[in-house]
């Protein structure tokens, strides 16, 4: 019988441990800011990560490594070409004229070409795992040659204390193909809300591509004034039109992707529609914009398809109020819009009764009971 010395056993154990550690680390992809220093509140900073162009990478989960104290929100984009060759660049719409701007990063868009949304995070949301057999396919023969991480910085406290930032996402990856490919469809608006007013921001787009999408998760995003965001598949015409809920949630709760509750399939000819109900208790107009004092109306729909064929156009936008409401579209029967579209849902997609929203607005029972009077908005003459 062969015996082993204590030293050989230790070396064998260490080798096995290192192999397991290497295998474990090879299953993750760290998409983190490279010790950046933000110089302004509402800085949008980007950094790029090259993907393997020889073979595809399959992403099956997103684990945030960030805190809302530092990051207002994080977006992950897929790009054919990144917006800059710089290690870090300013990818927001902010412009500054003070002396500190001389130390800011160079400005460039998020992507120079081939932009698509992969993931979004805010308000200390937790990890998102995709369903079995579903993955985002990146690199290889796909148009996504780079991942670009964008972080919107909420404050400068850590930077004033001499610290740097490594906010970002840790992705679970695999080289094994999955039969279903994931994508993200984003609905958003422009527009503004008058002072001391409740308003609804709406967007809707018809799916003209020959495709069959299966929504499995959704995410809502607004800033301080958002009460509830909702998304729908709209199918049929006239009195037979059906609005089926994809997701509905208060954007003041942690903003990760949450599972859909309805089994919905979206096909060519269907509409996808979203509504964001907001209440502005301030004494001035608030517009859709990029800063924390502006607003946003975003509804993200994560979906899967059989095979590799995703939506060509993955963004649906509208001018928002007062220029656009659902009633402006002849194909949308506003009498079929569910009243619940404008109501904050109960927990877990809404705050508990009497609980203040994280954005600072205390929802009143009057607003909950009477989410909107929409009659005047839909009396258009065509």
Automatic annotation (TrEMBL):
<feature type="disulfide bond">
    <location>
        <begin position="79"/>
        <end position="111"/>
    </location>
</feature>
<keyword id="KW-0964">Secreted</keyword>
<feature type="compositionally biased region" description="Pro residues">
    <location>
        <begin position="344"/>
        <end position="354"/>
    </location>
</feature>
<feature type="binding site">
    <location>
        <position position="221"/>
    </location>
    <ligand>
        <name>Cu(2+)</name>
    </ligand>
</feature>
<feature type="region of interest" description="Disordered">
    <location>
        <begin position="344"/>
        <end position="374"/>
    </location>
</feature>
<feature type="domain" description="Copper type II ascorbate-dependent monooxygenase N-terminal">
    <location>
        <begin position="30"/>
        <end position="159"/>
    </location>
</feature>
<feature type="binding site">
    <location>
        <position position="152"/>
    </location>
    <ligand>
        <name>Cu(2+)</name>
    </ligand>
</feature>
<feature type="signal peptide">
    <location>
        <begin position="1"/>
        <end position="22"/>
    </location>
</feature>
<dbReference type="InterPro" id="IPR024548">
    <property type="entry name" value="Cu2_monoox_C"/>
</dbReference>
<dbReference type="InterPro" id="IPR000720">
    <property type="entry name" value="PHM/PAL"/>
</dbReference>
<keyword id="KW-1015">Disulfide bond</keyword>
<comment type="similarity">
    <text>Belongs to the copper type II ascorbate-dependent monooxygenase family.</text>
</comment>
<keyword id="KW-0186">Copper</keyword>
<feature type="binding site">
    <location>
        <position position="223"/>
    </location>
    <ligand>
        <name>Cu(2+)</name>
    </ligand>
</feature>
<protein>
    <recommendedName>
        <fullName>peptidylglycine monooxygenase</fullName>
        <ecNumber>1.14.17.3</ecNumber>
    </recommendedName>
</protein>
<keyword id="KW-0503">Monooxygenase</keyword>
<feature type="disulfide bond">
    <location>
        <begin position="205"/>
        <end position="316"/>
    </location>
</feature>
<feature type="disulfide bond">
    <location>
        <begin position="276"/>
        <end position="297"/>
    </location>
</feature>
<dbReference type="InterPro" id="IPR014784">
    <property type="entry name" value="Cu2_ascorb_mOase-like_C"/>
</dbReference>
<dbReference type="GO" id="GO:0004504">
    <property type="term" value="F:peptidylglycine monooxygenase activity"/>
</dbReference>
<feature type="binding site">
    <location>
        <position position="72"/>
    </location>
    <ligand>
        <name>Cu(2+)</name>
    </ligand>
</feature>
<keyword id="KW-0325">Glycoprotein</keyword>
<dbReference type="InterPro" id="IPR000323">
    <property type="entry name" value="Cu2_ascorb_mOase_N"/>
</dbReference>
<dbReference type="InterPro" id="IPR036939">
    <property type="entry name" value="Cu2_ascorb_mOase_N_sf"/>
</dbReference>
<dbReference type="GO" id="GO:0006518">
    <property type="term" value="P:peptide metabolic process"/>
</dbReference>
<dbReference type="Pfam" id="PF01082">
    <property type="entry name" value="Cu2_monooxygen"/>
</dbReference>
<feature type="binding site">
    <location>
        <position position="73"/>
    </location>
    <ligand>
        <name>Cu(2+)</name>
    </ligand>
</feature>
<dbReference type="Pfam" id="PF03712">
    <property type="entry name" value="Cu2_monoox_C"/>
</dbReference>
<dbReference type="InterPro" id="IPR008977">
    <property type="entry name" value="PHM/PNGase_F_dom_sf"/>
</dbReference>
<keyword id="KW-0560">Oxidoreductase</keyword>
<feature type="domain" description="Copper type II ascorbate-dependent monooxygenase C-terminal">
    <location>
        <begin position="181"/>
        <end position="326"/>
    </location>
</feature>
<dbReference type="GO" id="GO:0005507">
    <property type="term" value="F:copper ion binding"/>
</dbReference>
<keyword id="KW-0732">Signal</keyword>
<keyword id="KW-0479">Metal-binding</keyword>
<dbReference type="GO" id="GO:0005576">
    <property type="term" value="C:extracellular region"/>
</dbReference>
<feature type="binding site">
    <location>
        <position position="296"/>
    </location>
    <ligand>
        <name>Cu(2+)</name>
    </ligand>
</feature>
<feature type="disulfide bond">
    <location>
        <begin position="46"/>
        <end position="91"/>
    </location>
</feature>
<dbReference type="GO" id="GO:0016020">
    <property type="term" value="C:membrane"/>
</dbReference>
């Amino acid at each position: 019988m062969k015996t082993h010395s204590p030293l050989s056993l230790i070396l064998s154990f260490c080798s096995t441990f290192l192999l397991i550690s290497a295998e474990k680390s090879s299953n993750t992809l760290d998409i983190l800011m490279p010790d950046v220093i933000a110089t302004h509140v509402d800085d949008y900073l980007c950094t790029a990560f090259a993907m393997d162009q020889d073979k595809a990478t399959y992403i099956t989960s997103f684990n945030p490594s960030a805190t809302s104290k530092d990051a207002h929100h994080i977006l992950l984009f897929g790009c054919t070409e990144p917006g800059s060759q710089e290690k870090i660049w300013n990818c927001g719409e902010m412009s500054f004229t003070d002396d500190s701007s001389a130390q800011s990063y160079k400005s460039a868009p998020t992507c120079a070409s081939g932009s698509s949304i992969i993931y979004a995070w805010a308000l200390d949301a937790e990890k998102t795992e995709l369903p079995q057999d579903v993955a985002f396919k990146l690199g290889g023969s796909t148009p996504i040659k780079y991942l670009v991480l964008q972080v919107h910085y909420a404050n400068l406290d850590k930077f004033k204390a001499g610290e740097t930032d490594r906010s970002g996402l840790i992705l679970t990856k695999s080289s094994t193909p999955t039969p279903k490919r994931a994508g993200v469809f984003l609905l958003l608006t422009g527009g503004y809300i008058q002072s001391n007013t409740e308003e609804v921001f709406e967007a809707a787009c018809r799916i003209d591509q020959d495709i069959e999408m299966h929504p499995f998760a959704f995410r809502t995003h607004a800033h301080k004034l958002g009460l509830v965001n909702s998304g729908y598949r709209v199918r049929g015409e006239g009195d037979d039109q059906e609005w089926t809920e994809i997701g509905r949630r208060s954007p003041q709760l942690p903003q990760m992707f949450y599972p859909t509750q309805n089994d919905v399939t979206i096909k060519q000819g269907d509409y996808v529609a979203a509504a964001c109900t907001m209440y502005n208790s301030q004494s001035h107009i608030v517009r859709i914009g990029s800063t924390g004092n502006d607003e946003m109306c975003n509804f993200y729909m994560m979906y899967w398809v059989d095979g590799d064929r995703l939506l060509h156009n993955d963004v649906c936008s509208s001018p928002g109020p007062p220029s656009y409401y659902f009633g402006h579209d002849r194909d949308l029967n506003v009498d079929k819009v569910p009243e619940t579209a404008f109501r904050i849902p109960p927990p877990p997609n809404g705050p508990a009764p009497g609980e203040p929203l994280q954005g600072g607005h205390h929802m009143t029972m009057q607003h909950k009971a009477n989410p909107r009077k929409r009659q005047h908005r839909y009396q258009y003459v065509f």
